[in-house]
Amino acid sequence: MSVTVRAAAKFNLHLGVGAVRDDGFHPLATVYHAIGLYDDVSVSDADRWEVVVTAEDRIAVHEVPTGDDNIVVRAGRALTEHHGIGNAARIAIHKGIPVAGGLAGGSADAAATLVALDRLWSLQTSDDDLLSLAAELGSDVPFALVGATAIGRGRGEIVAPVADNGAWWWVAVGNEQGLSTPSVYRAFDELTRGGSGDPEVPEPLLAALEKGDVELLAEALANDLQAPALALRPDLAQTFADAEEAGALAVQLSGSGPTVLLLCRDATHAREVAGAMQALDHPRVWTAPGPVAGAHVITY
Ligand SMILES: C[C@](O)(CO)[C@H](O)COP(=O)(O)OP(=O)(O)OC[C@H]1O[C@@H](n2ccc(N)nc2=O)[C@H](O)[C@@H]1O
Ligand SMILES: Nc1ncnc2c1ncn2[C@@H]1O[C@H](COP(=O)(O)OP(=O)(O)OP(=O)(O)O)[C@@H](O)[C@H]1O
Predict the structure, then answer these.
(1) Domain limits of the chain?
(2) Residues 6+ apart with CB under 8 A from 49
(3) How many Cβ atoms are within 10 Å of 264's Cβ, its own excluded?
(4) 149 touches ligand 1 (CB under 6 Å)
(5) Each residue of 227-280: pLDDT tens digit?
(6) What ipTM was predicted for this assembly?
(7) 78 in a labelled binding site
(8) How far apart, in whole angstroms, are the C-alpha atoms of residue 229 and residue 9?
(9) Which ligand gives the minimal distance to the CA of 98?
(10) What is the pLDDT of residue 62?
(11) Considering the chain, what percentage of its residues have pLDDT values greater than 70?
């Protein structure tokens, strides 16, 4: 028997970052948004933990570890330890989310693994326990469980849904070279000289989401990691310039980058913008709607 769970990519409509805490993490006030780029994770019983990774075209599968380093093995072990059982599984990941792109693909896989193994072994883990296990695996993992659009606080692990009445369309423009999340946070520390007020989620963004108004949303996007990421990767400025030329309503770095998200008016506009970006020499371009669901079972 096998169970397959689908989990979505995320990016941050707003990413407010405060001064680094004593534990090395930064306090966040963020608005997470799940978009229609997916990894599928299939689990089945095995004698020991095993990971197999495949990917859609244009996704660099060789960058994903297949041993214990893969976050899905950490997820599986966390769940078995929580229940005091000795089971193991073969975990097959099919990636549709670009790797090391700031789209939280590994976090999506971890969330999918928790849900899939819980179903495979009929563990009936409570939602609260799944969220706690997810938080231990990574700051973005709880959001990957809940999906849609949600506020994230703490280091990102405390999530609460927000009203989002939009049917948004995005173009994601990937980059061949990944960007390490800790290095972007370090560059943030240098740029802000360790200081920065308490981050807040801005009201105009919440109003834009509630109204489902794309013009207001275009005005309200913001990401405190964008400047440090651009300082590390000045080449990304060209992607921003090209996105404006391609007619995007707004352009923003996804999380810690290097993927760039372009807000579009509707699905037709998104296809046009994606075509224009390809013509401007960006081969890794995806169109995606949002918000979409968090990790959910698709076959078992
Ligand atoms: C950039 C974002 O994707 C925005 O949602 C996240 O903040 C990153 O989340 P993530 O990849 O799940 O991060 P984690 O695996 O928890 O942490 C990786 C590293 O990122 C840095 N980190 C992460 C989250 C946070 N609030 N402050 C940090 O400084 C720390 O150096 C940490 O060691
Ligand atoms: N299941 C996985 N999928 C992708 N990468 C993984 C996985 N498990 C471990 N990794 C490692 O984690 C690194 C970051 O991967 P990921 O695709 O999650 O980055 P990201 O989207 O930038 O994450 P985030 O936005 O959460 O910072 C990869 O370079 C890879 O070495």
Answers:
(1) 2-162+292-299, 168-290
(2) 68, 73, 76, 77, 88, 89, 91
(3) 24
(4) no
(5) 999 999 999 999 999 999 999 999 999 999 999 999 999 999 999 999 999 999
(6) 0.95
(7) no
(8) 19
(9) 2
(10) 86
(11) 100
Q: Please provide the CATH number assigned to the domain covering 168-290.
A: 3.30.70.890
pLDDT at 28: 97
Please work out whether the CB of residue 105 comes within 6 Å of at least one atom of ligand 1. no
Residue nearest atom 28 of ligand 2, based on CA coordinates: 100
Residue 194 pLDDT exceeds 80: no
Same fold, 2-162+292-299 and 168-290: no
Ligand 2 centroid to Cα of residue 104, in Å, is 7
What is the per-residue burial (b if ≥16 Cβ within 10 Å, else e) of 154-193?
ebbbbbeebebebebbbbbbbbeebbebeebbebbbeebe
- Asked if CATH classification 3.40.1000.10 holds for the domain at 2-162+292-299, the reply, yes or no, is no
Residues in the chain: 300
Say how many Å lie between the CA of residue 65 and the centre of ligand 1.
19
Question: Which of 12, 40, 63 should be mutated for ligand 2, with most atoms under 8 A from CB?
Answer: 63
